[in-house]
Amino acid sequence: MSRTPLPELAASGAPASPAGTAADLRPALLALVAGAVAMGLSPVLVRVVSPEVGPFASAFWRVALALPVLYGWMRWEEARAPHLRRVLTPSALLAGLVFSGDLLFWHLAILGTTVANATFFATTAPVFVVLFAWLGLRRRPAGRTLIGLLVCLVGGATLVGQSVQVDPARLSGDRDGVITAVFFALYFLTVERARARGLGAARVTFVASCITALVLLGAVALLETRPILPQTPGAAAGLLALALVSHAGGQGLLSVALGRLPAGFSSLVIFLEAVAAAILAWILLGEALGPLQVLGGGLILAGIATARPRRTPRDA
Question: Which first-to-last residue range defines the signal peptide (predicted)?
Fold first, then answer.
């Protein structure tokens, strides 16, 4: 089969998928948005469990409790689609390692600097996705991708910028926030590669989560100084929701989207996650949204609309 990339999307580095029009991308776009909302609930749930469970322990439970659901999803998906590959590819294993780095350095950033600073630096992940894809994979980004990314960055800075503080004493935490962004960028690219190699979204998410759970278990043993187990039913329910909604739902839907959408565009999900987190905190925790936050959210949506792919990248 001859597979000639369309020039517009070859530049954006989209993964393999059948040919079609923008309408074919709607399920993947819906999965991306739904995954962002699910991951956006994560800060709210972490706030619920944080009085009882340490940060590294909550990260471990987030992944470990999702494994049975992800395994069941994998078996179901592969039973319905026998053509999917059932192997352990290096890209799927690497996805688990870099996601471990993402979670570890995210929690270190939260401990070492303000939440606003950690969030601000973590939202630079799409910059690294575009940079790594351009320099490492020779994928020159489309002009609209760069414009959309710039608008999203301005929106993200507007969303959290009023709370960002410059403090030399917190430079190590700020550094960890940037490292978080680097690992998250690598996660997008490795999941995209695994999906392009013929693995289903469920297998990629399950394999990566197994690796992540093992790494985080070691981190809990070495680094955690706070309680590991929840003491109340509310905290236990929060951990379960964190695992099922934010991880199995959020990361799983992201893997689905990366089977059809380029990593450069899909990485903008981190901005959608920030918008969803702000809205959910307003609804569930009563944290009011100011005019700047509303403006930042609007800019993020405008940037994503600008960067969205118009067609699938392959012609059969």
Answer: none
Q: How far apart are the first and last CA of the chain?
A: 7
Q: How far apart are CA 185 and CA 237, in angstroms?
A: 30
Kindly list the distances between the CA atom of residue 26 and the CA atoms of 14, 121, 184, in Å, as whole numbers in the listed order: 15, 30, 24
Neighbours of 9 (CB within 10 A): 19
Secondary structure class of 85 (helix, strand, coil)? strand
- Measure the CA–CA gap between 25 and 208, rounded to whole angstroms: 25
Question: 301 vs 39, 114, 127, 133, 306, CA distance in Å?
Answer: 17, 25, 17, 23, 9
In terms of Cα–Cα distance, which of 9, 211, 177 is closest to 91?
211
For 79-234, strand residue ranges (E) read none
Provide the residue type at 185 as one letter: A
52: pLDDT strictly greater than 80: yes
Q: At what angle do helices 201-223 and 55-64 cross, to 10 degrees?
A: 150
Tell me the domain boundaries of the chain.
Answer: 7-307
Percent of the chain with pLDDT over 90: 35
3-state secondary structure of 93: helix
Residues 6+ apart with CB under 8 A from 117: 109, 164, 165, 170, 173, 174, 177
Cβ neighbours of residue 226 under 8 Å, at least 6 residues apart?
A: 53, 54, 55, 57
How many other CB atoms are found less than 10 A from the CB of residue 165?
11
The pLDDT of residue 137 is above 80: no
CB 309 within 8 A of CB 145: no
State the alpha helices, DSSP H only, in 242-290: 252-257, 263-266, 269-285
Any idea what DSSP says for residue 142?
A: P
- 1, two tokens: 């089969």
